[in-house]
Amino acid sequence: MKLCILTGSKRNCFGGVYTELFTGSIQYELEHWVTPDGDSIYGRLPESVQGYHFGPELRSYVLHQHHACGVTEQQLLESLWDRGVSISAGELSNLLTLNHDDFHAEKDDLLTTGLFHCPYLQVDDTGARHQGQNGYCTFIGSPEFAWFGSTESKSRENFLSLLHRPWTTLVLNEHAMSYLEDHNCPAKWRKVFQECLCVHFFNRESWDAFLDDCGLTKPRLRQKASEAMLYGSLLSHGVRSDLPIHSDGAGQFDVFIRSGCWLHAGRPIERVIPVNKEQVEEQYQLLCRFWDLYRELKAFKAAPDDKRASSVRQHFRQLVQTRVECSELREALSNLAVKEPELLAVLDDPNLPLHNNLSESQIREHVKRRKISGGTRSEAGRQARDTFASLKKMCRLHEISFWSYLRDRLNGYNVIPRLSEFIKKAVYGDMDEGFTNTF
How many Å apart are CA 235 and CA 49, to the nearest integer? Predict the structure, then answer.
C-alpha cells in the first residue's frame, strides 16, 4: 500500500511549527500469518492512516489551508497538483468534509461547557446560504469560547434549538408552562399542555407528532409551544434561568436575561437627519449625553459602586425623558427607554460587556466565506465549515496553534487537552498547562 504524505524540515515560526512542502510516499507491507489451525492474522496499518489514502500531515495541511487560511478548494487543488500530489477534486472535498466525527464531537462539547460554566453568552447571526437558499449562521460564545451553528432560520425557536443541541430529550414542565403564560398563549392550549405536564419526549419528531395529535395547526401557536418546550427542557437539563444573553437587541435572542449593546442602541439617534439648526443642536446634545453615560458605565465596570450605579440610572432616565422638538428624536428616545433593563444590566453584573464587538468580529469569518464562495452545497460541508470555524476561533482565543492542534488530533498524539477544558481553565483557572503548543 502506498500513502502520500507531507514531509520535510520543521521550523519555528512565531511560536508555531510549519512543514516545508514536498511530497513523498510510504509503502506499507502488512504481514500475513497463518496459525496452525488455519486462521489468518494480518498486520494493521497505523491508526492515523486507516481509511485514508493520505497521511495525517497532508490532511492537516489541507484542513489548515482551507479553514484557517481561507484557500478555496480549487486553489488548494492546484497547489497540491503543483507539488506533485496525485489527488482528485472529489477526494480533496472528502478530506475537507467527511470523517470528522471526532472534531464535530469536540466542537459540540464547547457549547455544553460554555452553557454551564461561562458567566454570560454573547450572540449574533449573519446570512449563510446553503444549497442555493438563504440561511443563517448563529454565533454563540464568550471571551472563553466560540461556537457556530448554521440553520435555515433565525427565529427565537431556532436560537433555543441551537442552545438545546447537546440534548435530544424534551420535557413539558412548569418552566414551559410559565413561558406560555408570559407569552400570552391562549388558555385553551395551556389547559391541554397542563394535562401532559412532566411528559418526556425522546426527540423533536415525537414532540411535533404530539402537537399534530392535539390538533394544534396554527404555525404561530406551534412555534410558541415549541419555544416553551425548548425553554423548559433547557432549564431541566441544568441551564441557569438567569443566564445573561448579550446581543445587539435582536428579538430572536430574547430569552433568559437580556443584556444589550450600547453601540447598537445609539444608532437610532445617530441616523436621524436634522432639517434645521435647532434639530442639529438637539441631536448633538443627546449624543453627547448618551456617550457620557457610556463612559460612566465603563468607569462603573472598573470600580463597581452602589452610589455610582444609582447615578447612572438617574442620568439614563433624565436622558430618555428629555423634551425635544424633532419627532424622530422623540421616537429614538422612546425606543431607548424601552431598552433600559438590558442596557443597564451591567449595573447588576459588572462582568457583562457594553458592546457586541466580540460577536461581530467572530462571525466575520462566515461573512468573508459567504462573499468568496457564496455558500455550501452539502450538509457535510456546512457542518464541517461550522465545526472548523469553531475550533479555529477557540484555538485563537486561548493562544493555541491551530496547525499544532490539527496535527495533534490527526496523528493521534492527543497531547493538547480537549478544548472544552480551556473554557474551565479560563473561568476557574485550575487546569495544569503540562503540554507543548508546538509539534
Answer: 43
Nearest to 343 by CA among 317, 363, 323: 317
Q: Which amino acid is at 170?
A: L
Kindly report the pTM of this predicted structure: 0.89
Report d(CA 188, CA 193) in Å as an integer.
9
Residue 236: enclosing H or E segment and its boundaries?
Answer: helix 219-236
DSSP 206: H
Q: Alpha carbon of 31 to those of 28, 39, 285, 414: distances in Å?
A: 10, 14, 83, 28
Residue for cell digits 481561507? 70
388 CB-contact burial (10 Å; exposed 0-12 / middle 13-18 / buried 19+) = buried
Contact (CB, 8 A) for 139 and 146: yes
Rg (C-alpha) for the chain, rounded Å, is 27
CA 242 – CA 148 distance, rounded (Å)? 23
- Alpha carbons 60 and 406: distance in angstroms, whole number: 6
How is 129-172 classified by DSSP, letter by letter? -BTTB--EEEEEEETTEEEEEEES--SHHHHHHHHTTT---EE-
Q: What's the pLDDT tens digit per position in 109-133? A: 999 999 999 999 999 999 999 999 9
Per-residue pLDDT tens digits for 52-64: 889 999 999 999 9
